[in-house]
Amino acid sequence: MLSDLYKETILDHNRRPRHYGPLPSANRRAEGANPLCGDRFSIALELVDDRIKAIRFEGSGCAISKASASIMADAVSGRTVEEALALFDRFHAVITGPMDRDVENDGETLGKLEALVGVREFPIRVKCATLPWHTLKAALAGSDRASSE
Hints:
The chain is of the alpha+beta class. It has a single domain (about 1-140), classed as Sufe protein. Chain: A. Helices cover about 40% and strands about 20% of the residues. It has four helices and three strands. The protein has helices at about 1-15, 65-75, 80-95, 125-140; strands at about 30-35, 40-50, 50-60. Strands 1-2-3 form a three-stranded antiparallel beta sheet, with helices on one face. Helix 1 (about 1-15) crosses helix 2 (about 65-75) and helix 3 runs antiparallel to helix 4. The longest helix has 19 residues, at about 125-140. The termini are far apart. The relative contact order is 0.21.
């Protein structure tokens, strides 16, 4: 079933996160925290000519937040800032949007990020899934802290 595949994707990215660790060449960094559950992440970026040449994250959190950071890093690596922000907007709209939105057939594919769509059924976990994204957005904007959205 599709939901089993999504669960496996989340578990895989939690167990073996991609882009995890320090990035000495970073020229943008931001910190993000969810005080309700204790998730804390830092995102480091190397931007070259308005493109994400490299991205890494560090920190700790639940399986949802760690998988979200890992999948996000895969998804935005190599993209322009504009493309990464557009993906943030699409992901955020889906994860915080109405439950009846048919994500798989709405024409705006999210790729592996669709594995996280089920989180919207658990409002308390939405912040877990979006924390890395808000931290990325802060880093892209040149801020060192994610907003508390």
